[in-house]
Amino acid sequence: MLKYSLDRENLENMEAIFTPNEAAAFVYLSPKRVYKEIEYKVIQPVSDLPRLSFAALVYLRALKEINFEFSVQYRTALYQSLVKAIEESASTLEFAKFFVLQLNSISQELSELISQFNEWKSHLVTDSNIMGGQTVFPDSRLSVHHIGKIIDREESIQAIQEDYPYLSELDLKFAPLYAKAYPLIGRPKQG
Prior knowledge:
Arc Repressor Mutant, subunit A, two-stranded antiparallel sheet, 9 helices
């Protein structure tokens, strides 16, 4: 197995932990699928809450790309092999005769996505005096969840840009991820 070097940002992402909803958003799977992997003990959470490691995200992203159903036993073995390979900084994982995961590519893609998302998210505004405390885009009263839900309903990006010309490409890219990673639960916050 080949080794590859990681920059500081990649290392930070690899040490981060994620909620199942964050993991689902970053790997483009449904939260139900992520919880299923936890329930069947394929993925081992890093705490009781549950929280998932970067290795779990790599596994889930590979699962999404493979788009093939394996038995729980096979998925568990794959996850355990993947964790070990990542700990050893392997760039690939050969799991079966013709089944090779490009860990380097998956890790790099996820790390870049998470870094960009976190940078974008740092500019969002959450203020109890604006929209009942919902997270909004800077200098607006427009809820990130609202735009995320519109995009999820497959409204055309062109129509959204016409209605909200101040939204950037990143706003339109990451709003659906934000809405999936941090779903609104219960009543809106009160001042």
